[in-house]
Amino acid sequence: ITVNKTIMLLIRRNEDLKEMLESNKESLKLEAMKRIVGLIAKGKTASELFPAVVKNVASKNIELKKLVYVYLVRYAEEQQDLALLSISTFQRALKDPNQFIRASALRVLSSIRVHIIVPIMMLAIKESSADLSPYVRKTAAHAIQKLYSLDPDQKELLIEVIEKLLKDKSTLVAGSVVMAFEEVCPDRIDLIHKNYRKLCNLLVDVEEWGQVVIISMLTRYARTQFTSPWKEVCNSDSEDKKEQAQNKPYIMDPDHRLLLRNTKPLLQSRNTAVVLAVAQLYWHLAPKHEVNVVSKSLVRLLRSHREVQYIVLQNIATMSIQRKGMFEPFMKSFYVRSTDATHIKTLKLEILTNLASETNISIILREFQTYVKSQDKAFAAATIQAIGRCATNISEVTDTCLNGLVLLLSNRDETVVAESVVVIKKLLQTQPSQHSEIIKHMAKLFDNITVPMARASILWLMGEYCERVPKIAPDVLRKMAKTFTAEEDIVKLQTVNLAAKLYLTNSKQTKLLTQYILNLGKYDQSYDIRDRTRFIRQLIVPNEKSGALNKYARRILLAPKPAPVLESTFKDRDRFQLGSLSHSLNSKATGYQELSDWPTVAPDPSVRNVEVIEPVRTPPKTFSHPCKHNVTLSCCESSSSSEEEESSDGSEKSSSDSGNMSSSSEKSFSESESKQKVKKKTKKKSQMTKTQLNAADRYSEDGSFLNCSVAFMRVESHCNAQGVPGRVYLLLHSPISRLYAAARFTHNPNCRICSCLDFINVLFFQVTTPSFGPMTTHELLHHMTGKGLSAKYQFPRQPCLYQPSMVAVQVILSNNSDHCLEKIHIGETSPASLSIHCFNTIERLEPEASVMVSMGIDFSDSTQAANFQLCTKEDQFSVSIQPAVGELLMPRTMSEQDFCKEQGKLLGMNETSPISFYYSKSIISRVADARSALLCRFAAQTISSRALVLVSLELKEATAALTVNTEKSVMASVLLRDLKQAFAQV
């Protein structure tokens, strides 16, 4: 009756939902879909409603359409015929202005597992892979895997799409396309070459699921492209060459180091899978002395749930076998707790046993004494096995462990006694001559032991060392003859063995007993025992049929046996990649890809070089200075006579180029400076070749160089012919915009200062006020999403008029529709604590018209996006403004002494340790031309809280060291990340 009532209620509920879905009110349909999705989330079936739901797939209500697509993704594979009826609707939805609708339509389309629509799916994936929305491109990457599983013949076409998506610069797409690569063509390593460095640099910003996939793929990639950092491979035959190879230090490939450097910060991730992925990468790729960095992060994961602890402990157990030193400082973290599950206790016990050494064995054994008393019988037995392993591996404690195990033989718990007997038997095989008393003691306890394995172990000891206990062994055999028929098979087999050995060594006392036991075994129910009995009889009892084998009976049965080796169960698991399912199961799982061995010779690293299309460069210019010496921007040394002849033509070109300055540069100078004429230097003036210009003057049209070029510079002190030091203040573009640098340099006419060190432009201007380069515009709202209304924003880098703690933002609103837009204003903001000064409501915006408005936003010194609603009279659009860290800073001028003084106050927890960058020989030679190292100091303060930010960049020899000191420790990490990405592009 209860079941029938339940069924009737479900039918009535479904009828109600059907009526709501077929009504004319959008609100009822939306409520019905919410309830249906709720049922699906609870695990209840709602397949009967498929016809009613699919009718609403063409609804104009976006929220309703999203819920319908969620339902269709769940049941499209089950209801394929009905889903095919709406396939034209899905195709139209692929052109919808809303990116979520386009993505949902593709997801539903790829969920219909019918071969007839494979061409349609292929076409949809190709179009979506070129979509403007990264969310849609991400969905296309997911659809690739579904289509490949449905029709593997489409592999070649799908590889073309994967190759295209691998070039995508969006962090949202990276993880998904790498997963598609792993599913479709994991052997096509050539597709990764050009994208390797990009994936390494994007790794920090990819979502956690994508990080795991990318790290796993890059681990396999690195094992095929780089040489082993663990040992030197020497193929030379001569001794001299071998000695040279041994003395030659290992030089890690820069791309290999890039991977290790960019994955190391992910050890602080909150996601367990990410931390474990980085740990396995370091284990398989990093030099041995660098692997220890993963220890602390792995131990941190032991505070998680049991399931996480189990997997992490398995990987730690494998690591601790080969490298005890990694986890020895964290030994207390592996102490067993009473609340731990049995499988967790066993793994911790395994790790403690692996970490045991001469220095800490006393502490571990005291811990084991407590574990033996545990109420968990399986754990207590495992502890006794661990004690036996410690006794075998560390000879200094063998006797101590044996004595302790003998004491456990009087324990009331049969499981503990049985396990102790088994372990003692294995230990006695190592030193049998010294422990006859222990064998006698075990014989006395034989009657009280009931566990079959323990009884069999004692019988084996008696037979193996029967000559050492000649009086006790026959008595034990006598007792076993009485209870032979009632014993377990394993005990019967050892009894037959004991009888045979005693027959050979003491036949006078045991001949009749042996014959009696052999007769009992001859008619036993187990065929194993019957066969063993017949074999033993023919072997030890001479007769006409026994043949020549009888002569060797003693050598066969009493042959010396090698002592057993007590090893960890995790010893051979290192053949599987850490963190994989195969490693956890200790057997090769379906789809497992083995790591290849390190190549003897590294493949050509140039395959990872990406061609950079450089913009048109402006030739270097000469600017006058109040001091009597003109500063010429050049990387050349003193010119020769041949160069002087070429310089005559070059001087005319340079003068014309200097006169034709870009309009953006003219706007950045003051009027007085724009009228000032550039003086020409007529003596020994060298002309730069095109190659030198490309190498030295990397000044692009928009005033940026590798996201880090100089916008202006001011010389404070005069420089004379003797080379008096001067101080230069540099203003850099994004991502470290608004930062001032104080750089020490020496001017000498005989040694021109390098104008570009491949990452910084040095432009000498006679200005004393900041001159910013052209502003970068970011898209705030696309006209398709905004129903004709588009919005872009930019940071003017000027003080905010509304409040000093706010960042000034300019928003450009455009009407791309054919009708007027009214009441354009800002609605709700998020988070609630966000302080924002809104622009005044725009009452009317004509078609094809644009207007620029100003806003002020207090980001509270955080790069968290400011979310708000951009509203019109009829619609609301959710938008967000994401500031770069440089936009949260304002310049602060200070002397070198003040800089060093403030830097000294910000040491310790507010300091981010230096990061080294390695540069080419050409840069080193140009630094040598300057006859000194280059030290740049950048000073700024945050707009919101006026917190001081100090950055030091020192270029010396072949490295550039970067140090960040700030009162905002959170900003330090973000700033260092952006700086690192900017400078590492060189």
Q: What is the CATH architecture assignment of the domain at 1-226?
A: Alpha Horseshoe
Report the major sheet: 8 strands, antiparallel
> Mind telling me the CATH class of the domain at 1-226?
Mainly Alpha
Percentage of β-strand residues: 5-15%
Mean pLDDT: 75
| Number of E strands | 17
Q: Rounded to an integer, what's the Rg over CA atoms?
A: 39 Å
What share of the residues lie within helices? 40-55%
Structural class call reads alpha+beta
Looking at CATH, the homologous superfamily of the domain at 1-226 is Leucine-rich Repeat Variant
Shape: elongated
What is the CATH fold-level name of the domain at 1-226?
A: Leucine-rich Repeat Variant
Number of helices: 39
Low-confidence stretches: 232-239, 614-773
Question: Termini, distance in Å?
Answer: 77 Å
Description of the structure:
With about 1000 residues, this protein is α+β, with helices and mostly antiparallel strands. Among the domains are: about 1-225, Leucine-rich Repeat Variant; about 430-560; about 775-885, Immunoglobulin-like (Sandwich), CATH 2.60.40.1150; about 890-985, TATA-Binding Protein. It has 39 helices and 17 strands. Strands 1, 2, 3, 13, 14, 15, 16 and 17 form an eight-stranded antiparallel sheet that branches. A five-stranded antiparallel sheet has the order 4-5-6-10-8, with no helix packed on it. A four-stranded antiparallel sheet has the order 9-7-11-12, with no helix packed on it. α7 runs antiparallel to α8. The radius of gyration is 39 Å and the shape is elongated. The protein starts with a helix and ends with a helix.
